[in-house]
UniProtKB/TrEMBL annotation:
InterPro entries the UniProt entry points to: KH_dom-like_a/b, OsmC/Ohr_fam, OsmC/Ohrsf
Any one Gene Ontology molecular-function term assigned to this protein's record: peroxidase activity
Protein name (record): OsmC family protein
Keyword vocabulary terms for this entry: Oxidoreductase, Peroxidase
Record bears the keyword Oxidoreductase: yes
One Pfam match: OsmC
Entry EC number(s): 1.11.1.-
Length: 140
């Protein structure tokens, strides 16, 4: 069974520095008094993790399927509950693909495989949120 370990250190005010298992560090802070505005906000970072996890799957699968795209981006909308502790209870993941010869069937298959089989972060989100996905093809 795989285990990941990160270390997060308080720097000052509302600023923390964290690492990931490969040793790369990043800053975390919050929009409260004493924030220096130098870091990522924890809840927004969760949405980035969701996009990153699924995006890595999709790019890898499209490469294996020989379905080239010129550009690809994901937009994730997360709706927080009103009461504390606030958490995402509704999440929409938009997949936007750009290109002149987009293979719709392969793109949809890659996204579906990520959503249903490979993306562990997506599965974690489904444990506490209603997650929906949308695929947009932008022919250029």
């Amino acid at each position: 069974m795989a285990t990941n370990t990160v270390t997060t250190v308080w720097k000052e005010n509302m600023h923390f520095e964290s690492d990931n298992p490969s040793g790369i560090t990043f800053s975390i802070d919050a929009p409260q008094d004493g924030s220096d505005g130098v870091g990522l906000r924890p809840k927004a970072m969760m949405l980035s993790s969701l996009a990153g996890c699924s995006g890595l799957d999709v790019v890898s699968l499209l490469k294996k399927m020989r379905a080239e795209v010129d550009d690809f981006k994901m937009i994730v909308h997360g709706e927080l509950t009103d009461e504390h502790p606030k958490y995402y209870h509704k999440v929409v993941v938009e997949y936007h693909f750009y290109g002149s010869d987009l293979k719709e069937d392969k793109i949809n298959k890659a996204v579906d495989l990520s959503i249903e089989k490979y993306c562990g972060v997506m599965e974690m989100f489904r444990r506490f949120a209603d997650v929906t996905t949308e695929v947009y093809l932008h022919e250029q």
